[in-house]
Amino acid sequence: MSELVVVEVDNKDLVAIKSEKVKDIFTKKNGLNEAIKEIEKKVAGFKSDISTAKGRTKTISMAAKVTKSKNYLDGLGKTLSTKMKAELKVSVANVESERERMKTQLDALAKKVRQPVTDWEADEKTRKEDIQTKITILASIGIDDYLIIEDAEVALELVGKTEIDHTYCEFRDEAKTAKALVVTQLSEKIQAFRKADADALAAKELDEAKKEIADLKAQLAAQSEVKSDVTEEKPIIETEKAEETIPETISGDSGKGQPIARSYAIGGGMSPPTKKINGSSSSGCQWPDPDPKPEPLKPGLSDPAKTEPPKSLIDEDERKVNSSILNSFVGGGVSVKEGKIAVTMMARDQVPHVKITYKEEAKKIEGGLEYNFHVETVTAGQPRAYADSYYEYKVTSTRGEHFVKNFCMNVLRKSYEKNDMPDAFSGQLVSFKKITSHNADAFGKEPETYSYKTTELYTG
Length: 460
Description:
By secondary structure, the protein is α+β, with helices and mostly antiparallel strands. It has helices at residues 22-27, 33-44, 53-143, 149-161, 172-224, 230-233, 240-245, 304-307, 313-331, 336-347, 360-363, 401-412, and strands at 260-267, 370-381, 389-397, 428-434, 448-456.
């Protein structure tokens, strides 16, 4: 059955379509071809004489029918499109609604299935954060500021008792590293406290020592004004010749004057006589005098050589101790003359709280060996005010190099290797080296000369 109904009402319509077939015709590919061909067929069979008015009017009427058919078919398509769009809109809304309902229900189902793992992850996060917090607190102990050493010591004890056990789990190595770092930091802080205390104590002792030296100088100045016996006022410590070899230019801030030549004699090994505080005192004050020159006696005085016992080995050791103390005074800026007076007073127990003790083993040298060292002082003291002190000596001896170095560092001028210094203010060895080559091997007997240099920090 044809889907088209060709009508010709008042010669106006060329084609018509049944209403129930409209959707099929418009939705099928090329569905309107049959209607278009029917109109074309009717137009092809149309005849008119355009030479007459009637013919021309008939032709215009046919063209109008074609246009009217077009409008008719287009109206059917437009109505169908509007209807289908409305139906599609409802369908789309239904589709979207179903999509949302499906997603909501399945999301909830997925969350329910995963919930046990989610809870485990939350617990793991809390566990790790707790461990990291413990490690952070432990590390903060090492960087805190401590006002007193006791707080740092308590903190170090607390950290030491902190056990890095299994509760730290995978962060155990990190916790151990943090603990080791904290122990190091606290130990350094405690050492800094102790050094500060030691420095403060050293500064206090230095101030007290300076005050004692000032008091001693005042006493010396007062005593120098008192005229007394020559043998009592001028200690037999060195001759005028020795005074000439230790010039006054060494005192104060000069730092470098004419070379000072001294001789040391050590017997019975390397244990030199030493100065002690609050020990027992010696019987007198003696100084090495290689070329004594007798002084004229004042009226009424007897010759000391006729009344004093001959010099013994023990006296020689005592003189060496006294010389060592004098050298320390001279190196600290005291003049030779004042230094001799000071040592004489110390040896005679005339200075409160200060005594000189001569080691017993240093006295027992009879029958032992005696070693001689010739010492030339090249530089001693500060090169300028507020500067560090520098000391340079040339030491000549027949003893081996190791023996001479021990003598220099322990007897001549106390010093330490840089890594062995007990504190920053101790004497530091700058260099020790042999500067002559008189012997072909270690068994030679010719004296060798060594250069010995040391320095001491300025302490104010």
